[in-house]
Specification:
By secondary structure, chain A is an alpha/beta fold. Chain A has two domains: 1-88 and 179-261, 3-Layer(aba) Sandwich (Rossmann fold); 101-177, no CATH class. Chain A is built from ten helices and ten strands. In chain A, the strands form two sheets. In chain A, strands 6-7-8-3-9-10 form a six-stranded mixed beta sheet, with helices on both faces. By secondary structure, chain B is mostly helical. Chain B is built from 14 helices and two strands, in the order H-H-H-H-H-H-E-E-H-H-H-H-H-H-H-H. In chain B, a hairpin with a 2-residue loop joins strand 1 (149-150) and strand 2. In chain B, helix 2 (29-54) packs antiparallel against helix 10 (205-231) and helix 2 packs across helix 11 (241-254). The longest helix of chain B is centred in the last third of the chain and has 27 residues, at 205-231. Classes of the chains: A alpha/beta, B mainly alpha.
């Protein structure tokens, strides 16, 4: 069950016996699994299973009470969000959180913050280095917008976009920080069938760039179709872990999650 | 983008020529004096707008930095015989340093709490101005602040002072514009929209908020310096809680997150009391009423409100 065949690929992220309690509620209980480099891993489980908690633990919003989170052979539990973004962990939110008063392209430009350096004086004095960087930031942003298919609305205010496009924009913004691993919290929520299809294509395109994906998703078709591996959580515990087929045939999963065996 | 830069530069040039034209054609000393005060207040509003409008952090104690700039420069140039231009550097450094020290714990707060924190700070500084009388002259004020001069140019002339204030204001507008359109400015605006998401994309929100707080305090100190050497007499009464509220009002009335809004808001709030002298005892009533009407009709502030009216009329 624990994916020994995956040893050939190196694991980018290792979760080792991670636990987290909130005022007596076990949001994560002794969870362990690995994410191999270049994989798409689907994180599923009923509401309240602890998926978003796990996301927040990996991205540094929460610190685990016990256990280790190892990213690229480095223990990262307890590090700040900022440090983890620099190391290459980016995320999107369940309820899209864009910078609504900024344009679409500016949203992606902010996304490059950790990969750029221009400071106060560079900006005020318009130093040559700062101007050059500014051009590069803009170009990168437009390239990313093209990648997700939003280049035609680059100068619109982000709040004016239809919801499905906002999700794509948030993905572009997360990719702007050049992550090695991208965590997507319910990327298909609120999307129609066509948009979900586009999203699946986009996720495969992102993977082909060598970015590892970890996604929480309720759309089972999508998750089973694109994921290399599935992690199933239930009430803060790891219920199962394996390929989509293995997981679908797992009795504990059927009982707890898919309803009745 | 290029087009927008072009538009900004044209607007700055227009303002520059308007300033020069006013300087050449207006003879009335009173008008020049009022216009100089508008410049000083615009500088205050601009600095506060960087903090409030762009970064989304409220300060109800900014008059403290205005006062620190005025008093530091006055004390250095009178008690210690420092050249006023060197005193300006001292004033800016003092205000920046205090903003830095106060900012570290205070900016951890947000919303109403940040408002209360900065309000408390403003009151403490006001009491210091009033009670530390050996240094500040206490409640009766600080007299005999020397006028500015630069080589052969004397700023005793209201016209020259008007030019000085507005050139500094213009320079600051250009600085702010550049800052807003940069990586730092975008990060600041992202904090305004969603601090949560800004952190998630790797913006060091605590550091940036502190930086812009210090920057806006420094601008307030420059305004304080200009005020002190213009009127040559300062008293604690100019730097009370009400002065802080007036600064916030300028920003809100002019339009949040707008460089030109700072100018409009400061103009309106400086001119209104002058116009309203005719109402004598009812001055404050009319003043309040005008502000209410502006906020009811143009809740986004003058800049955006007027732009929208203009755009609607073109359709």
């Amino acid at each position: 069950m624990n994916g020994r065949e995956n040893n050939l690929k190196s694991s980018l992220l290792k979760i080792e016996s991670v636990s987290k309690t909130f005022g007596g509620v076990q949001a994560a209980q002794d969870i362990s699994f690995k994410v191999s480099e270049g994989d798409i891993v689907g994180l599923i489980g009923p509401n309240g299973a602890g998926k978003t908690t796990l996301f927040n633990l990996i991205t540094g919003v929460y610190t685990p009470d016990s256990g280790k989170i190892i990213f690229e052979q480095t223990e990262v539990q307890g590090r700040e969000v900022l440090t983890l973004v620099k190391m290459g962990i980016a995320r999107t939110f369940q309820n899209v959180e864009l910078f609504e008063n900024m344009t679409v392209v500016e949203n992606v430009m902010v996304g490059q913050h950790v990969r750029t350096t221009c400071g106060f004086w560079g900006a005020v004095l318009r130093l040559p280095g700062a101007l050059k960087e500014e051009k590069k930031i803009r170009k990168n942003a437009l390239d990313l917008l093209e990648f997700v298919g939003l280049e035609s609305v680059a100068d619109r205010r982000s709040s004016e976009l239809p919801f499905g496009w906002q999700r794509l924009l948030e993905i572009a913004r997360a990719m702007a920080s050049k992550p090695k691993m991208l965590l997507l919290d319910e990327p298909a929520a609120g999307l129609n069938a066509v948009e979900t299809g586009t999203l699946a294509e986009l996720l495969n395109k992102i993977r082909s760039q060598g970015i590892t994906l970890l996604l929480v998703e309720h759309d089972m078709n999508l998750t089973m179709e694109i994921s290399d591996r599935i992690v199933v959580l239930d009430q803060g515990r790891l219920l199962a872990h394996g390929t989509p087929r293995e997981v679908q045939q797992d009795e504990a999963v059927m009982a707890a999650y898919l309803g009745k065996a | 983008m290029l087009l927008r830069w072009g538009k900004n530069n044209i607007a700055f040039m227009v303002l520059f020529f308007v300033v020069v034209a006013i300087g050449i054609w207006i003879e009335n000393q009173y008008y020049l004096q009022v216009l100089t005060f508008i410049g000083i207040n615009s500088l205050l509003a601009l600095g506060l707008n960087m903090l409030m409008g762009y970064a989304g952090q409220i300060s109800l104690g900014h008059a403290a930095f205005y006062g620190l700039g005025a008093y530091t420069s006055a004390i250095l140039s009178v008690h210690y015989n420092v050249n006023p231009w060197l005193a300006l550097i001292g004033a800016v450094l003092t205000a920046s340093l205090i903003a830095f020290i106060i900012g570290i714990p205070t900016l951890k707060l947000s919303g109403y709490y940040l408002g209360m924190g900065t309000l408390g700070f403003g009151m403490v500084v006001h009491v210091l101005f009033r009670e530390w009388s050996t240094l500040t002259g206490g409640a009766s004020g600080f007299v005999g602040i020397p006028p500015l001069e630069l080589g052969p140019i004397s700023f005793l002339s209201v016209r020259n002072y008007f030019y000085l204030v507005w050139l500094i204001m213009l320079a600051n507008m250009v600085i702010c514009r550049r800052l807003i359109d940069s990586r730092i400015g975008r990060a600041l605006r992202s904090i305004h929209d969603s601090e949560h998401a800004a952190e998630a994309v790797g913006v060091d929100t605590a550091n940036l908020k502190l930086m812009i707080f210090v920057f806006s305090a420094a601008m307030s100190a420059v305004a304080g310096f200009l005020y002190a050497h213009f009127v040559s007499f300062i008293s604690p009464g100019s730097f009370t809680f009400l002065a802080s509220v007036r600064m916030v009002t300028m920003v809100v009335i002019g339009g949040m997150a707008s460089i030109w809004g700072a100018l409009l808001g400061a103009s309106l709030l400086t001119l209104l009391p002058e116009w309203l002298h005719a109402f004598a005892d009812y001055e404050m009533v009319v003043y309040g009423a005008v502000l209410m009407i502006v906020m009811i009709l143009l809740p986004q502030g003058l800049t955006r409100g007027l732009t929208e009216i203009y755009e609607r009329s073109r359709k």
